[in-house]
Amino acid sequence: MIRANDNYQKLQASYLFSDIAQRVALFQKNNPDTRIIRLGIGDVTRGLPPAVIKAFHEGVDEMADDATFRGYGPEQGYAFLREKIAAHDYQARGADISADEIFVSDGAKCDTGNFQELFAKDIKIAIPDPVYPVYLDTNVMAGRTGVFENGRYQNIVYMDCLRKNDFLPEMPKEPVDLIYLCFPNNPTGTCATKSELAAWVDYARQNQALILFDAAYEAFIRDDSLPKTIYEIDGAHEVAVEFRSFSKTAGFTGTRCGFTVVPKTCSVFTGEGEKISVHALWNRRQSTKFNGVSYPVQKAAEAVYSREGQAQVKELVSSYLQNADIICRTVEDLGYDYAGGKNSPYIWVDGQGRDSWEFFDLLLNQASVVCTPGGGFGRCGNAYIRISAFNSRKNVELAMKSIKEALK
Ligand SMILES: *Cc1c(COP(=O)(O)O)cnc(C)c1O
Fold first, then answer.
1. For the segment 226-258, what is each residue's pLDDT rounded down to a tens digit?
2. 60, 86, 311, 388 — which has fewest CB within 10 A?
């Protein structure tokens, strides 16, 4: 008899986006002439930059010709892309990361989800609440949690992110082995300063722990005092793996390309306390289970680092940041407490005593605006909604106008 992986039965069916879709569909049915504006999903809306598209086309043309055709590429990614990433994203910021420490992939979702495979089943894991659900669910699937009770899985150390700690994860009071961090954060939009990240690096070094650092929104950091990579922190290259993506940076959500940085100096330990290289383990994992990202897509990603590409990507991200600013000003004028929206495309708004679904329904029914109820990201999100800046300027302005009227 073919048995199922019982751990999948522990997963909480995520009704979040289907629930939202149902409520939106019902509202549209009852109000057929109303135009709904969606500031809910975490997906970009603008087209790929011209420099990226040009390189993408050239890559496709090369595949058509026997002389320039490429078959299987290196599982770790082409050197032309890994070298650009190392030079622009790391060495230029004083972070000592080399091209062979970079693993190109089809996105940060897969990598943040797959990375836990390298660790023992009985390690202690710390995960923020609220959180991007991938970190939690992939550990549930792997059997690292107990059952779900009172909105939480047993055997997970949850790090509350609330107003009282400026929405930064609370450091665990018990020793943990693996720590998931994400800055700029999805969903709260908060960023960590260098000293805040340094405290995590110290914690990891003292506890022989490893940090999995998700920097998918790094491109939204415009404040030069904020770290863009965890490797700007001394000692991080011994205790941190960093995930990046071209999705939110350059509009690659449908094109698929990202990368993971695994410094050669990061270690895990055997039962006998012997050190093993995390880089060697991830390299083995990728070579066995992954066959690389398509050549035209890697050419397209490389073009992000060209002079035109850099300028175009900067303009793209700036347009979303300006939307975020418009949203922040509206929320502020209305007297609502919020986090994020600066150096981030997400605004995390306190419902003033409303439950997150109640606030969601209010904005849908009174303003025809779709947001995301914070409860979908964890128990600590129950009193919040997330508003996303990923839409056109015109739609954001229209949405803010109707939110103002609905909430004043
Ligand atoms: C969007 C997002 C990613 C990127 O996912 P891709 O698979 O690269 O598209 C990673 N982490 C977080 C927190 C995100 O919101």
1. 999 999 999 999 999 999 999 999 999 999 999
2. 311
Residue indicated by tokens 């650009």: 84
Q: Are strands 178-182 and 125-129 parallel, antiparallel or unpaired?
A: parallel
The verdict on residue 3 lying in a domain is: no
Looking at the structure, tell me whether residues 108 and 241 fall in a common domain: yes
Count of C-beta atoms within a 10 Å radius of residue 117 = 12
Regarding the beta carbon of 108 and ligand 1, being less than 6 Å apart is answered: yes
Please give the pLDDT value at position 358: 97
Span 374-402, pLDDT tens digits? 999 999 999 999 999 999 999 999 999 99
Q: Of 289, 305, 321, which residue constitutes the final position of a domain? A: 305
**pLDDT for position 18:** 86
257 touches ligand 1 (CB under 6 Å): no
378 lines ligand 1 (CB under 6 A): no
If one counts the domains in the chain, the total is 2
In a domain, 136, yes or no: yes
Same structural domain for residues 301 and 312?
Answer: no
Ligand 1: which of 185, 245, 346, 388 to mutate, judged by most atoms within 8 Å of the beta carbon?
245
CATH number where 317 lies: 3.90.1150.10
The residue ranges of the chain whose pLDDT is under 70 are: none
Same domain for 251 and 111, yes or no, is: yes
- C-beta 251 within 6 A of ligand 1: no
pLDDT (tens digit per residue) in 12-58:
877 788 899 999 999 999 999 999 999 998 899 999 999 999 999 99
Give 76's DSSP letter: T
Residue minimizing CA distance to atom 4 of ligand 1: 108
Tokens 């035209």 appear where? 296
Do 283 and 318 sit in the same domain of this protein?
no
Q: What pLDDT shows up at residue 408? A: 85
Residues 189 and 286 grouped into a single domain? yes
Q: Is 245 in the pocket of ligand 1 (CB under 6 A)?
A: yes
For residues 239 and 356, membership in a common domain is answered with: no
Output the CA–CA distances (angstroms, integers) from residue 202 to 213, 221, 225, 230, 258, in the order listed.
14, 23, 20, 12, 27
Indicate which residue's Cα is closest to atom 2 of ligand 1.
Answer: 216
- pTM value is 0.97
> Domain check: are 242 and 230 in the same one?
yes
| 247 in contact with ligand 1, CB cutoff 6 A | yes
Q: What is the reported pLDDT for 71?
A: 97
Residues 95, 217: one domain? yes
Distance between Cα 274 and ligand 1 center (Å): 33
CA distance 86 to 261: 9
What range defines the domain where residue 250 resides? 53-305
Judge whether 261 and 102 are in contact, CB under 8 Å: yes
For 363, half-sphere exposure in the C-beta direction (CA atoms, 13 angstrom radius) is 28
Domain-ending residue, one of 270, 305, 340: 305
Q: Report pLDDT for 12.
A: 86
